[in-house]
Amino acid sequence: MKPCTVLPSAALDLSLTLKVASLAMDSLCRGVFAGNSRELSVRSCFPSLFQAEQSHRSVILGLLLGTGRRPQPDSALIRQARAERWTQWSLRGGLEMLPQALDSHLTSRGVHVLRGQPVCGLSLHAEGHWKVSLGDSSLEADHIISAIPASELSKLLPAEAAPLAHVLSTITAVSVAVVNLQYRGTHLPIQGFGHLVPSSEDPVVLGIVYDSIAFPEQDGNSPGLRVTVMLGGSWLHTLEARGHALSQELFLQQAQEAVATQLGLKEQPSHFLVHLHKNCIPQYTLGHWQKMESAMQFLAAQRLPLTLAGASYDGVAVNDCIESGRQAAVSVLGTGPNS
Predict the structure, then answer these.
(1) How far is CA 270 from the centre of its chain?
(2) Residue 274 forms beta bridges with which residues?
(3) pLDDT at 123 (0 to 100)
(4) Mind listing the pLDDT tens digit for each residue in 138-175?
(5) What confidence score (pLDDT) does residue 7 get?
(6) 7-27: string of b/e by CB count within 10 Å (b at 16+)?
(7) Phi, psi of 194 (to 5 degrees)
(8) For the CA atoms of 277, 271, 258, 172, what is the dihedral angle to 10 degrees?
(9) Which segments in the chain show pLDDT lower than 70?
């Protein structure tokens, strides 16, 4: 009989912690941020987990007992979502309906939306107004709400805001390839929203969403199966290191190999779409909260008529960005918290 080794409880706890980190947290970071869990900040990326650990010295115990959540916005739609226990949402015509509806709402009320005129620079007048340069024209603004990526805003700020520009330039982003596949006359062998892939299993494939199961209403008139494969993120350089050119053909091939291996979908898709979204997901790396604190302190001390919003700061999900925009409007207009 071979001798057995009894590990102390501390060693077992450490082993379990490392396993959770290497699988669960690694997959979660890839699914939400397309990022490397070894580089991201739990405090900034998943504040509820951080608060749970800080409050009860245990993530699981903290989540079970509650951590004193900050006040949440309220509306009839939010109450309906809570009552019906929504876990996900979409729009019948896709999420593009949201900006389209916002555009229609604003323009019907006399708001002029400038299109195809990228901002080339920002400068401050002596009286505290902004001059927004648009190439061959310009406009003046009392206040700016910036929802563009932080690194892009850093390039536009004037010399007076150099300390802020430096902080914003350090908030980087990763690129993600998204491949939509549609199949005829086939079904998935499993049910669910989708699955994430830990980097130890496949560094290139981040995860797969089962669109037809999550939102069958969007399948259209022709029955079929739709899945979305997400690739790259912090691992996009892995493909380049292998000598591959980042082409649509490569992403399609990688996606088809992934669904064949992981879901058994070996036939050719009837339709497909491939998009490479460059620098689309900001990375809240270690020290991100300190960067945000520094940026907010500078804005307050200099009394700059500038409000930061969007995915670069306090959440990358659609819900986070909507809430970021609402808070920005509240801070500028001084309206109520649930307006």
Answers:
(1) 29
(2) 179
(3) 95
(4) 999 999 999 999 999 999 999 999 999 999 999 999 99
(5) 45
(6) eeeeeeeeeeeeeeeeeebbb
(7) 160, -170
(8) 0
(9) 1-22, 50, 54-72, 335-339
CA distance 264 to 66: 41
Assigned token pair, 318: 């659609």
> Two tokens at 172?
């980087």
Tokens 């997959």 found at? 27
Q: Give 129: exposed, middle or buried? Use CB within 10 Å, 0-12, 13-18, 19+.
A: middle
pLDDT value of position 68 = 53
Look at residue 61 in the predicted model and tell me its pLDDT.
57
**pTM of the full structure:** 0.84
Residue showing tokens 């990326």: 45
